């Protein structure tokens, strides 16, 4: 098939097909990443001239208590999100596959928050948590539990509150993935397990969880990478406050660059976030590869 | 189906059913609360945030005010324009690239694919500062084109990933036959490949549309004047300006949630299938 190879190996055609995507992608993603690293070596507020400061911005970054807090908050959100979304998602999925009536309703009910924009969710939950007229406190009041009323978006609870909202937004998504995976387990395996006397919890831990391991991995990767760039909820509901109690790496970058106009410092924080994302992606892939060798 | 193989007692089933019912109410209640408070007067809401509205005193005017007087209409139109145009461009550009990578014969095609795929993991925060600075220099800040460029670019890696997967399944014979009939590669692409992948396009187009519709960070950084804001940024701006008129705020939030909910209910089976396929392949 010389003709085929000639037609599909046509260099000009290949260039025409690939060029728009390649150029746009390169200009908007890889080049700005390099540019960001370059800028992290300067002090600049866009008004005065740029001054080269070497790795001074990185030193400043890691001696800035707020930045260190933002790393800690990002870790807290990641851990809470993993706990809430994986466990609750799996539990809901296991419940749903065991009933016949109402499956569709339950799936939709749990999934609906996921299609709303974070602006809608953030503003809604800002009101849910409000002290004076929020949903939670007004329910507590109406059932006589006034003493349990809290300032939910206070320093003490804000990370927990944000993680709950994020769980509300995402748990249905992970549940749907788990339901698909559980429904895909081969019937022979389930039957064999029943013959061997696997029941209840044993069935879940010995059969179902090992069988859906690849999906669990995908959902854990998604939760970790999503938490690393956690911005929307923290910015909409508290702007990283009160008193930086919900400052994440992403809100720190935004505030430093676009509110304080410290572009060099912001770029240093961006570069740090990029390095961490790469590190974590590589680490997860390595771990997963090892695991799969074992099994 | 899975349920057949596990024998649960009726009591256990009833407990599961009751739990799911309770939890679904818990999940949906914030939305219900939002909707019924959006038709109260501000004073009614403040006096009793939990109570139902009086039927005789429904404030449908809240919706009119939010939509017309306070500018939600403008934000919705902006969002519609940005989301549709970015979906069209993303699909054209990525389907061309995916075709070249998957169906054309050249040595570095897999390398180029990996180059695109590496973009999936990049958090958008990392490129915002250089983007902002360069767009300022190029006079692209606060413009629709400036907003479209990164929206389209960030959609590319995922789209190329999904589309190369689709193109892989098309048999070579179709293209060979067309070639013998004298078609050029360009013609093969838009006469044979594109029509074959149309059904898949619908699903990814909807995903892509919702992604652009819901995006907050890019327009938050790139758009400054209220006339050009998209819904998410407009809502935040709205809260800043009319923060005291809470029930009107609620109406605005309800309005901006409606399009996504309609899209979901019209296309839910396709959407869920596409989502599962996307995640399980990755």
TrEMBL record, chain B:
Alphabetical list of PANTHER family matching this protein: ABC TRANSPORTER PERMEASE PROTEIN MG189-RELATED-RELATED, SN-GLYCEROL-3-PHOSPHATE TRANSPORT SYSTEM PERMEASE PROTEIN UGPE
One Pfam family recorded for the sequence: BPD_transp_1
Main location: membrane
ABC transmembrane type-1 domain mapped to chain residues: 76-267
Subcellular location: Cell membrane
GO biological process: transmembrane transport
Name by which UniProt lists this protein: Binding-protein-dependent transport systems inner membrane component
Entry-linked InterPro entries: MetI-like, MetI-like_sf
Topology of this chain in the membrane: Multi-pass membrane protein
Transmembrane residue ranges: 12-36, 80-101, 113-133, 145-167, 188-210, 249-267
Keyword Cell membrane: yes
Keyword Transport: yes
Assigned GO CC terms: plasma membrane
Protein family according to the UniProt entry: Belongs to the binding-protein-dependent transport system permease family.
PROSITE patterns: ABC_TM1
Keywords from the named record: Cell membrane, Membrane, Transmembrane, Transmembrane helix, Transport
